[in-house]
Amino acid sequence: MADEGQVAKLERHLGLLREEYVKLQNKLVEMEHKYSIAKASAGQGEENSFVSRLLKTVADLYDKDLYSDITVSFGGQKIKAHKFVLAARSDHWCSRDLNEVTELELSDVSVDVGLTLMKWVYTDKAQIPKEESFLINLVHASNKYRLKDLRLRCEKILMSSVTVSNCIKFYQTAEDIGAKELQKYCAEIISNHWHDLKTEDFVGISAPLLYEMFKSKSTYPLHLTIRHHREDVLFLFLIEFNSQLPGKLNEVDPTTGEVPLHIALSEKLDSIARTLVGHGCDVDMVDSSGNCLLHKAISHGDEFSSTFLIKNGARVSAANHAEKVTPLHLTASYRPWMAGSASSPAGANHMTSAEGMARIASLLIDKGANTDAQDLAGRTPLHRAIEAKNDKVMNILLNRSKLNLELRDKQGRVPLWLALSCDSFDSMDEESLAAKLVKHGASADAVNTVTGDSLLH
C-alpha cells in the first residue's frame, strides 16, 4: 500500500512537470515568434519566413495599384494606399470608420511631410532630414494621427538641436505639437541653466506656459514675471491671486530684498508699474532701514522711478529711520558723476544729471514736500545743497519756496555760515552762494548758538 501511494505521488508530480513543460514550450514559441518579427522588422530575418515576406510585401505595396482600396491626399498630391496597412499603424486617421471611406485627406500636411510619413507607414523606414521646421511639422502630423514610433524618432532628432539659447523656444514648440519627450528634455536643460537664461529667451513662449514655469522655479513668480517684462503673465498672476491682493504685490524676495514695484521701475516698465499701483501695491514700501522706494530711487539717481513714485502718491516728506532724511534732502545732496570717472559709483552711467535731480526737487516741492525738514544732524535740504555745491537744487529751493534761512544744524550753523565756509568766497561775486542767500533774506548777524560766534567773529 505504501508503494502504491508513493507511485501515485510520483505520477502527480510527473503530471505537473508535463503541464509546466507545455507552458514553457508555448512561451518559447511565443518568444521565437516575437523574435522573428523583431528581426524581420530590423531587416535581419530569413527571407522566406512568413514575417519577413509579409513585411516585404507591405513595403512593396507603397503607392501601388495592387490591392489598393483607398487614396491618401496631402498638399495637392495623391498616393494609392491600403486600408489594412493604415489600420495596422493607427486607429485615428479620420473621424469616420476607415472601412467607410475611399479617400483620406491628411489636412495641414505638406507634400514633403506627407511623403515621408506614408513611406514610414509602409516600410518603417524614412529619410528624415534634420531641418527644424520639417521635423516640427512631421512631429505635429505624427502626433495628430497617433503614430507614436515616428513621433519619438523625430523628437530624438530634434533633441540634438536643442541648446541653452533655444531651449525655451523648443519647450514651447514641444508643448504646441505634443512632443512630450522633447518637452521633458528641454525642461531639464532649462532647469540646469536657469540662471543663464535672458529676458529675450522668454519672448516666444506663451503666457500660461511661462507662468507655470515661473511658479515651478521660484516662490516669487511675480518678481520673475516683471524681471522678464511679461505683462501678459502678470495678468494671470492677478487673476489667480485676486483674493490676496494687494498683499501679494508687496512681497519682498529675501534673496534680493526687492518688491515687484521696485523691479518694474528699475526696468522702466511704466505699464506694468501702473498696473501694480492700480491694484493697490504700496508705493511707500520701506526696507529695514526705513528707506522707502522714493529714497532709493533718488539715491540711485533714477529720475524715471522718482518721477513715477511722486506722481503716484508716494509720501514726499517721508523720513528714514536712521538719519531722518527726506527725499528732498537726498535731491539736495546729489552729486552728478562724470560717466566713466574713477570715483564714479556703480551704475553712474544710468544716473540722472544735475538738471534731472533739480526736476525731481521741483516736483517734490509741487507735491508739498517740507522744505525746512531737518535730518538727524539738524541739516535742512538747503544745508545739504550747500555742502554738496548743488547749485541747481539750491536755486530751486530758494526760488520755489519760502525757506526759513535761520534754521541751524546741530553744530549751530545757519545756511549762510555753511556757504561762507564751503564756497570760495568772493565779496564782489554777486552769484556766490552767500550772495544768493543774503539776497533771499538770510541774516548777516546770525550767531552760532554752540560757539557764540557771529559771522563777523
TrEMBL record:
Domain BTB: from-to ranges: 68-130
PROSITE patterns: ANK_REP_REGION, ANK_REPEAT, BTB
InterPro entries attached to this UniProt entry: ANFY1_BTB_POZ (IPR049765), ANKFY1_BACK (IPR049763), Ankyrin_rpt (IPR002110), Ankyrin_rpt-contain_sf (IPR036770), BTB/POZ_dom (IPR000210), NF-kappa-B_inhibitor (IPR051070), SKP1/BTB/POZ_sf (IPR011333)
Residues forming coiled coils: 7-34
Pfam families given in the database record: Ank_2, BTB
Residue windows of the ANK repeats: 256-288, 289-321, 377-401
Name listed for the protein in its UniProt record: BTB domain-containing protein
Organism: Nematostella vectensis (Starlet sea anemone)
Lineage: Eukaryota, Metazoa, Cnidaria, Anthozoa, Hexacorallia
